[in-house]
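User: Sequence recovery, please. Input:
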């Protein structure tokens, strides 16, 4: 991977109009690429923030995975999966460095820099947190990252990507023999009433029935907006959801938390998490797994904020509130 420079597509919310400001680099989820963050862009400058969002590998404008990487992604053994995680952590480190050095952005060196993942994007934030000691990083690159990155923010971390054990009665329309892409989007962007979140019992979550009011986020988007923001990225991100990936995802998540706890990133003092209590069922077990891992490891601290009434697509439906939470994290 290191032999060929990767091409990355990214956009930003614009200069906030002040000399000193903080930057948050945004990593998108499955199917919904960097443009899904654009509803948050108008709220960045008033909060004294600048958002920069990039398309991950294989999404528009960014280099796809190589044949070797795709083979690791689709393999069935944990060692290959962990190697893939390590490689992608290095790749994310390199795009973060590219953004920090981009003269067109001219980001202030005095400002804080957070990296925020949404949904599947959290997997890549954690891969970055494991990558600072990667042997292919140059000392100058490692020094820049350790001095500039101040916050790791997980937005709506899915249970599969955190390596949580799935409940026996779980449901995912993406696993149907002939997946209905629109129904998957409705399910993922819908609002759910979960009867007993305090129990931390994943078998008691509402798996299927999203509310009609509020309606799923995608039902309030035009066909043009959906086409502009999304694509079918099953071959790119689908393997992470398979049972064969669970062990690697748990090991990788634990390793990322351990490295933050042990001070590999001197300016990252905790892991920030935002989630909504009306989200689909895949998210609460992901949060609980992170809490359990951090407790077992003795850290790092988790700064968890709940968006009351928030769905999984909070970056669309609750863009202002999500930005406000990000501001709180960065200001801490």
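Assistant: Recovered sequence (332 residues):
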């Amino acid at each position: 991977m290191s032999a060929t420079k990767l091409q990355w597509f990214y956009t930003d919310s614009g200069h906030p109009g002040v000399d000193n400001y903080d930057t948050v680099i945004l990593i998108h989820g499955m199917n919904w690429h960097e443009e899904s963050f654009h509803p948050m862009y108008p709220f960045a400058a008033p909060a004294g923030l600048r958002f920069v969002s990039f398309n991950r590998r294989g999404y528009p404008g960014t280099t796809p995975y190589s044949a070797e990487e795709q083979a690791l992604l689709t393999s069935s053994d944990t060692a290959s999966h962990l190697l893939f995680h390590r490689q992608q952590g290095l790749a994310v480190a390199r795009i973060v460095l590219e953004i920090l050095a981009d003269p067109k952005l001219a980001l202030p060196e005095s400002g804080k820099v957070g990296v925020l993942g949404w949904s599947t994007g959290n997997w890549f934030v954690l891969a970055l947190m494991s990558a600072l000691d990667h042997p292919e990083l140059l000392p100058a690159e490692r020094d820049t990252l350790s001095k500039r990155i101040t916050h790791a923010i997980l937005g709506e971390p899915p249970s599969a990507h955190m390596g949580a054990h799935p409940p026996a009665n779980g449901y995912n329309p993406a696993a149907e023999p002939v997946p209905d892409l629109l129904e998957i989007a409705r399910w993922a962007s819908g609002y759910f009433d979960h009867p007993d979140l305090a129990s931390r019992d994943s078998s008691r979550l509402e798996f299927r029935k999203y509310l009609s009011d509020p309606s799923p986020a995608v039902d309030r988007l035009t066909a043009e907006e959906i086409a502009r923001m999304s694509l079918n990225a099953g071959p790119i991100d689908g393997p992470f959801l398979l049972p064969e990936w669970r062990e690697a995802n748990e090991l990788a998540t634990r390793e990322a938390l351990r490295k933050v706890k042990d001070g590999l990133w001197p300016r990252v003092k905790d892991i920030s998490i935002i989630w909504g209590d009306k989200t689909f069922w895949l998210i609460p077990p992901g949060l609980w797994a992170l809490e359990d891992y951090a407790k077992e490891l003795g850290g790092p601290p988790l700064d968890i904020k709940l968006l009351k009434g928030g769905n999984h697509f909070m970056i669309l439906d609750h863009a202002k509130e999500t930005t406000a939470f990000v501001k709180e994290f960065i200001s801490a």
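The longest helix spans residues 78-101.
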